[in-house]
UniProtKB/TrEMBL annotation:
It is found in: Mitochondrion inner membrane. It comes from Friedmanniomyces endolithicus. One of its GO terms (biological process) is alternative respiration. Signal peptide: none annotated. Its EC number is 1.-.-.-. Its main location: mitochondrion. This is Alternative oxidase. Catalyzes cyanide-resistant oxygen consumption. May increase respiration when the cytochrome respiratory pathway is restricted, or in response to low temperatures. The keyword Nucleotide-binding does not apply. The chain crosses the membrane at residues 150-171, 212-235. The lineage of its organism: Eukaryota, Fungi, Dikarya, Ascomycota, Pezizomycotina. GO terms for cellular component: mitochondrial inner membrane; respiratory chain complex. It holds the Pfam family AOX. The gene is AOX2_1. It comes from the Eukaryota.
Length: 355
């Protein structure tokens, strides 16, 4: 019996749903007032359920296998490189100082975007302690970020993060066709980045399901962000890559904080939760290291890689330089840009180091 498919309206009475909601956040009424923002998804595989929703009728298999007679599954287009546990644990928060006018423009725009994201996702990690006296709930906790709030932030963040790589890849692809010139490896890396971000999103969607309000916000944000990034990339691809580099710095910071919160025992549901199957397969997660914390560790390492890639691409000649992350080097023993995180450079490779 596939338990993902068998959670039905009858399986969860209104009474038990209310009970689960109370145990989940300790404030069923607050959730009930915002039922459409996010629904925490019940999952039976792996072992036990971590979250349930107040609307059991909506529960269903999120990504069922194709309903076709001869096709069993579809394969991933890009195999994820192997990360070691030590490499992932060594990822650090970092910031590349703005040096040029283009860098300052990128940083200012990123800070504006970040402000909007914090507002939309109710993120106030740093202010939690200071807010304690004003907000009775915060007063009881050193962090105001619950599992539910983190999920809202992750899902919103990943729906936005998947846009730049696709836009950059698409524009470079069209440029190559139009100008009848080679692209030298940029397109694949950009498209792979957007694919990777979408896998982050699919991982989180196995745990929580956005309601209609959040879907509406995502729709609006995508419409604005796609078009703005599209125009920006046409005007200055260098600034656009720098902007993504700064955005990824924030993503690394976000996931570092959630890992710290898990390790500090503030997010017990994340600590106990098993990683979704889609995550186990995509990252090839080794047995015994398949918790939600482990999945977040992989995601943070991916964000660090995007940070490195985009800061490096922002240092290159946008028209003529090859993409060093897709290149074969003469001397492979000397540290150089690679697809995995063997030679990680948090703030990117300078042009003379990279080529
Ligand atoms: Fe991501
Ligand atoms: Fe990213």
């Amino acid at each position: 019996m596939n338990c993902n498919r068998t959670i039905t309206a009858t399986a969860l009475s209104k009474q038990s749903a209310t009970h689960i909601l109370k145990t989940l956040n300790g404030k069923a009424t607050a959730i009930a007032a915002r039922p459409a923002f996010i629904l925490l998804q019940s999952r039976c595989s792996p072992p036990e359920r971590q979250f349930s929703t107040s609307r059991p009728a909506l529960m269903k298999e999120l990504f069922p296998p194709p309903d076709t007679p001869n096709i069993k599954t579809t394969e991933a287009a890009w195999q994820h490189p192997i990360y070691s546990y030590e490499q992932m644990e060594s990822i650090k928060v970092a910031h590349r100082e703005a040096r040029t006018v283009s860098d300052h423009v990128a940083l200012s725009i990123m800070r504006t975007v970040r402000f909007g994201m914090d507002l939309v996702t109710g993120y106030k990690h740093d202010k939690a302690v200071a807010n304690g006296t004003k907000d009775p709930k915060d007063a009881k906790s050193t962090s105001s970020m619950t599992e539910r709030k983190w999920m809202i932030r992750f899902i919103f963040l990943e729906t936005v993060a998947g846009v730049p790589g696709m836009v950059a890849g698409m524009l470079r692809h069209l440029h190559s066709l139009r100008r009848m010139k080679r692209d030298n490896g940029w397109i694949e890396t950009c498209l792979e980045e957007s694919y990777n971000e979408r896998m982050h999103l699919l991982t989180f969607l196995q745990v929580a399901q956005p309601g209609w309000f959040m879907r509406l916000v995502v729709l609006g944000a995508q419409g604005v962000f796609f078009n703005t990034f599209f125009i920006s990339y046409l005007i200055s691809p260098r600034t656009a890559h720098r902007f993504v580099g700064y955005l990824e710095e924030e993503a690394v910071l976000t996931y570092t904080r959630v890992l710290q919160d898990i390790d500090a025992g503030k997010l017990p549901k994340f600590a106990q939760m098993q990683a979704p199957e889609i995550a186990v397969k995509y990252w090839n997660m080794p047995e015994g290291q398949r918790t939600m914390r482990d999945a977040i560790l992989y995601i943070r390492a991916d964000e660090a890689k995007h940070r490195e890639v985009n800061h490096t691409l922002g240092n290159l000649d946008q028209k003529n330089d090859p993409n060093p992350f897709a290149a074969k080097f003469e001397d492979d023993s000397r540290p150089h840009p690679v697809k995995d995180i063997k030679y990680h450079k948090a703030t990117g490779w300078e042009r003379e180091e990279a080529l």
